[in-house]
Design brief:
The chain has about 425 residues and is mainly alpha-helical. Helices cover about 75% and strands about 0% of the residues. The longest helix has about 30 residues. This is Ghrelin O-acyltransferase.
Length: about 425
């Protein structure tokens, strides 16, 4: 199934590492006053276009087409209705390419270009930024006024929007930054430029290097100890699956951290505390390895995993749905990710176990009394969370039936199944 070849593919990481010098150049020129506000927008926009062409080739037209439709609708549709138009057209465009990939993989059995995968992944991030702006316009958190008599003024107002959509620091990876925050960050270089990010970027690059070293070591161990259900113990199969899922998750942590580095190198993501003594460069972050992996609850892990995307999904779906908001949110997430078989199983399992998590912990919250019992309870909750997330990651990342076969061979799928059974029992008050 070519799994390990996919694990070694790090196109996103490579392109973003090569983008770091340009981010530092932008910071240097903007802080020294060599770039006016207009030229700052021009720099990040042209940089995004160049990065798209280099990374995606001809498939960069997917992004440019979405941006063109976005600008056209912003100029012509009433703000109260623009969200429905942008959301519908963008999701249809994205879904078309997801289905095309599935058709070529599953029906034609043809290899799909890595450039197309990069383009579709970036298109998903573009959907986040476009719908974020459309919700801002609909909720009147941002206002745009266009006058037909003033083309120059119209171009000036559109320029920040286009730069926000095609910003090279977020083109290949998050974190998602709101349009108003992006504008304030760009304008802030003139008012109060952030301090030099060289030190913090270096430390975060070291973290990326350490994560990649751990990932390579785990890949080596997994390849040397392929699980054989006919002669291996059940515990060995569970540990092998957990290690495989950890490899896949570390790939995301590396990608998020290098994306954070790229934003920091450009001067974005810095917040100075009210005291003025503490300086924090994590204003734009999708989460880190330690905080996320130490989560003891499935719902807690879901909030921390890809944090800015989780906030976007909450705003876009959860807070707008009156019926079954949790399942509607995870259902939209599987649509946004591509509608593969593994996505259906993985995201619906995740939704059911998050729901079960609320009921189970509400029932067991006051049960442990002594310190040792509380410690045991915490450890068991962490193991349960890790096993459930392992099942979700395996099914969603492998995407096809191979992930489901692995779960059945190693019996690790019993963990989410037991949680769902407990949800049913608690839902009907059988255990009360």
């Amino acid at each position: 199934m070519g799994l390990f070849n996919c694990l070694w593919e790090q196109q996103f990481l490579i392109h973003q590492c090569f983008s770091l010098p340009f981010a530092f150049l932008f910071y240097f020129l903007a802080k020294r006053g060599y770039l006016s506000l207009t030229y700052r927008y021009l720099f990040v926009c042209v940089g995004g276009c160049a990065l798209a062409v280099v990374a995606m080739g001809v498939y960069s037209t997917l992004l440019f087409a979405s941006t063109g439709v976005f600008v056209l609708l912003v100029c012509s549709v009433d703000p109260s209705r623009i969200h429905a138009w942008l959301f519908g057209i963008q999701m249809l465009w994205q879904t078309l390419w997801h289905l095309l990939i599935q058709y070529r993989e599953n029906w034609l059995h043809e290899p799909v270009s890595i450039r197309l995968f990069v383009a579709v992944s970036s298109l998903m991030l573009l959907t986040q930024r476009i719908t974020s702006v459309s919700m801002d316009l609909q909720e009147k958190q941002a206002t745009l006024t266009f006058k037909a008599s003033s083309r120059r003024k119209t171009c000036v107002m559109l320029f920040p929007l286009i730069s926000y959509i095609l910003n090279f620091t977020t083109l290949l990876g998050g974190p998602l930054c709101s349009y108003s925050r992006f504008v304030s960050l760009m304008e802030g270089f003139h008012l109060s430029p952030p301090p030099s990010p060289l030190g913090v970027v270096f430390l975060k690059l070291i973290q990326v290097l350490l994560l990649e070293m751990v990932r390579c070591c785990l890949i080596y161990v997994i390849k040397q100890n392929i699980y054989d259900p006919s002669c291996s113990a059940v515990l060995c199969g569970v540990l092998w699956m957990w290690s495989l899922a950890l490899v896949l998750r570390i790939q995301y942590y590396s990608h998020w951290r290098i994306s954070e580095c790229l934003n920091n190198a450009a001067g974005f993501g810095f917040w100075e505390e009210s005291s003025g003594d503490n300086r924090d460069w994590s204003g734009l972050s999708d989460g880190d390895f330690w905080t996320t992996e130490t989560s003891t609850r499935v719902s807690e892990f879901a909030r921390r995993w890809n944090a800015t995307t989780a906030c976007w999904l909450r705003r876009l779906v959860y807070m707008r749905c009156k019926c079954f908001p949790l399942f509607m949110t995870f259902g939209f997430s599987l649509w946004w990710h591509g509608l593969h078989v593994g996505h259906f199983v993985g995201f619906l399992t995740w939704a059911a176990t998050v729901k079960a998590d609320h009921y189970i912990h509400r029932y067991l919250h006051r049960k442990p009394s002594s310190t040792w019992r509380k410690l045991l309870y915490t450890c068991l909750c962490w193991i349960n969370t890790q096993m459930i997330i392992t099942c979700v990651v395996i099914t969603t990342e492998l995407r096809n039936m191979s992930g489901l076969r692995l779960l059945s061979l190693t019996y690790i799928g019993l963990f989410p199944l037991c949680n769902i059974m407990l949800l049913i029992l608690l839902k009907f008050n059988i255990l009360y």
